[in-house]
Amino acid sequence: MKATMSSIELSIIVPVLNEIAVLPKFFAGLQQQRVISYEVIVVDGGSRDGSLQWLQRHQQSYSYIKVISSAKGRARQLNTGATHASASWLLFLHVDSFLSNPLAINESIKLLNASAENSIAGHFPLSFQRAVKNSSFGFYFYEAKTFTNRSETIHGDQGFLLSKDFFLRLGRFDETLPVMEDTDFAERLRKQGRWLTLPYVLTTSARRFEVEGLWQRQLLGALIMCFRTIGWHDFLCCAPDVYRQQKDTSTLLLTPFFNLVNILLRELPSRRRDEIWRRSGQYVRGHAWQLFFALDSLISYLLGRPSGKVIMPITRICGPIFNGLTANTVGNFLMTYLLKGWFYGTVFIISKVENIRLHR
Q1: Concatenated DSSP letters for 187-203?
Q2: Fewer CB near the terminus (10 Å): N or C of the chain?
Q3: Cα–Cα–Cα angle for 351, 357, 360, nearest 5°?
Q4: Distance from C-alpha of 360 to C-alpha of 356, rounded to nearest angstrom
Q5: What does 285-336 look like in DSSP terms, one character per residue?
Q6: How far apart are CA 205 and CA 126, in angstroms?
Q7: 322: burial class by Cβ within 10 Å (0-12, 13-18, 19+)?
Q8: Whole-angstrom Cα distance, residue 47 to residue 323?
Q9: Containing H/E element for 142?
Q10: 179: β partners
């Protein structure tokens, strides 16, 4: 809904970098939202594909738009957008996302207001829009996880909807993190408030997963989330450079990232190296519920249930039992050495597979 400055209820903050291919569809989708007056704050991080020029030309064609230039970096762009927000509600949204229900945003704000909580935020569960329409358990599983509202299952592609007051109390996105600033923000929010899974599905592009490989991207994401959680920022600082070196490849190559972990670990004192392995083992133990959830998801997938309707008997029964058996010194010790074995076994297998692929 087109709005005047005095009537704006929501500020939608959208970071962009070379997104001219998806900008028309994004704004056409926003035009379908009803009963909510909003402004769109597009923060450009230095696009060179004509995105900024396109936005400037179309400022008068869509609902109220602010086009702002910012230093490159997702966290910086999000923070810059928030400082220019006029409304009392903020929605941090990716440019390749789309809400099909025209009342989704308005009804979601109503739900958050109805909670009578000052420290609550909403996120949308996901549906991946794929170029290839074949059935895929991998995409089904990752869609299903976005409905669970569990630790480290909430990321920026799900949209963050919260009051500006709550955002200011939480603090800005961490600009010192080169990646995973969204997950960091989501987990800080979880400690100080509550996430609500909103009852409207957000369709998001699967373009990156389809180009790079779903399991490759998710495995790299798991490494990054683990090291972010345990506070080992050496890997987080170096990983973007490795990623940029292979930006022109199609399938994401994981060997350089595993090699980077090895190099960085070897440079550390043995005590610090052992601490990283130990804390990583504890991290993995805390996320073992995903193995049980994968089994539940597979059963629901085979039964033809929607990804938002996964039945979870295995997760509910086996998860607490597993935690009860392993939440101790022996359990942490075993998880650490199982993780080591998995890591070096994976390095060996992946390096062989990727080497064969590169020399075909």
Answers
A1: HHHHHHSEEEE-SSPEE
A2: C
A3: 135
A4: 6
A5: HHTTHHHHHHHHHHHHHHTT--GGG---HHHHHHHHHHHHHHSSHHHHHHHH
A6: 10
A7: middle
A8: 47
A9: helix 137-145
A10: none
